[in-house]
Amino acid sequence: MLSDFASETMTQTLPIGTTTRVRVPGSSANLGAGFDCLGLALGIHDDIEVTVVDEGVHVDVFGEAADAVPRDERHLVVIAIRRGLDASGVHAPGLAVRCESRIPHSRGLGSSAAAVVGGLAAASGLIANAGLADQMTDDELIQLASEFEGHPDNAAASVLGGGVVTWVETIGDTAVYRAHRLAVHPAIRATALIPMFESSTNMTRGLLPDTVPRADAVFNVSRAALCVHSLTSDPTSLVAATADRLHQDYRAPVLPQSAAVVEAMRSSGLAASISGAGPTVLVLGVEPLPERAVGVATDQGFAVRELPIAGGVEIA
Ligand SMILES: Nc1ncnc2c1ncn2[C@@H]1O[C@H](COP(=O)(O)OP(=O)(O)O)[C@@H](O)[C@H]1O
Ligand SMILES: N[C@@H](CCOP(=O)(O)O)C(=O)O
């Protein structure tokens, strides 16, 4: 797929002044039992504008983590733009990149996947707007973005929007990332309980064991399958569907506040789970979060934000 895409555009240079705008949603991965294979796009967006200039890389960042990210070739969006252009055999003399970041970083809301999808989508938009080739397909965006992330759940949600189920096929030595969009039941509401503190996804992935007891594997397989049914057809089983034994308990020692909030929500009958690798907690349901639960979260220092289910990345 990408090799065909690249061969059409090999060694071409983007004209100075070519521009593109991208709007990309954040996401919540896992949804409890679906470790690395379920995700939900959320209505909290980063906006990225890129213009081809005659030389250099100029990065402006506004909003979340504006003071923390590098303003040069090391910026994740710039790295992804470069990767997208390289995959298509296209060169940019220089780039001016403007990021309006609204997805909090290192909170389990898919900011890194959104940055990568946004950068790749911007490369695709530049190439298409210059008339060099069609935009990349969703499959191409998911493949390239998941190669950055090492797991496809957040990236697929940011590309496709809605709910996603993802899987990986190994073809020769290559991991091929696959995804289907799920039509989320219209009654389902998602509330993110977002703390001020951060947690690195890479760090907490390192806490997970290589092998798990078969009973835990069976527990999660059944709950992840149920979660697809609950998300699409029957929200009444969301509490059972969002139970997990594959990752949350192993991460709990470094995320004790988040683990306590999940426990408090679940013991009052709410479908709460760690969002992605945490520390945000995601609550799924069909009603607004009850006042009592809002109080528990805010007492623990978690901001409560109900977020719409979002559509996928938009490229103009
Ligand atoms: N919009 C962005 N621009 C630049 N870097 C980003 C952006 N979003 C995320 N990152 C990088 O990704 C890191 C967070 O990734 P990660 O630990 O996977 O958490 P999450 O994706 O859950 O927010 C940040 O510390 C930052 O280095
Ligand atoms: N399946 C991944 C999801 C990580 O999501 P993030 O938003 O925390 O980056 C995992 O559980 O590690």
Automatic annotation (TrEMBL):
GO cellular component, one term: cytoplasm
Similarity field: Belongs to the GHMP kinase family. Homoserine kinase subfamily.
Free-text function comment from the UniProt entry: Catalyzes the ATP-dependent phosphorylation of L-homoserine to L-homoserine phosphate.
Organism: Williamsia sterculiae
Single annotated GO MF: homoserine kinase activity
Residues in GHMP kinase N-terminal domain copies: 76-162
Domain GHMP kinase C-terminal positions: 245-285
Species classification: Bacteria, Bacillati, Actinomycetota, Actinomycetes, Mycobacteriales
Protein name: Homoserine kinase
InterPro entries: GHMP_kinase_C_dom, GHMP_kinase_C_sf, GHMP_kinase_N_dom, GHMP_knse_ATP-bd_CS, Homoserine_kinase, Ribosomal_Su5_D2-typ_SF, Ribsml_uS5_D2-typ_fold_subgr
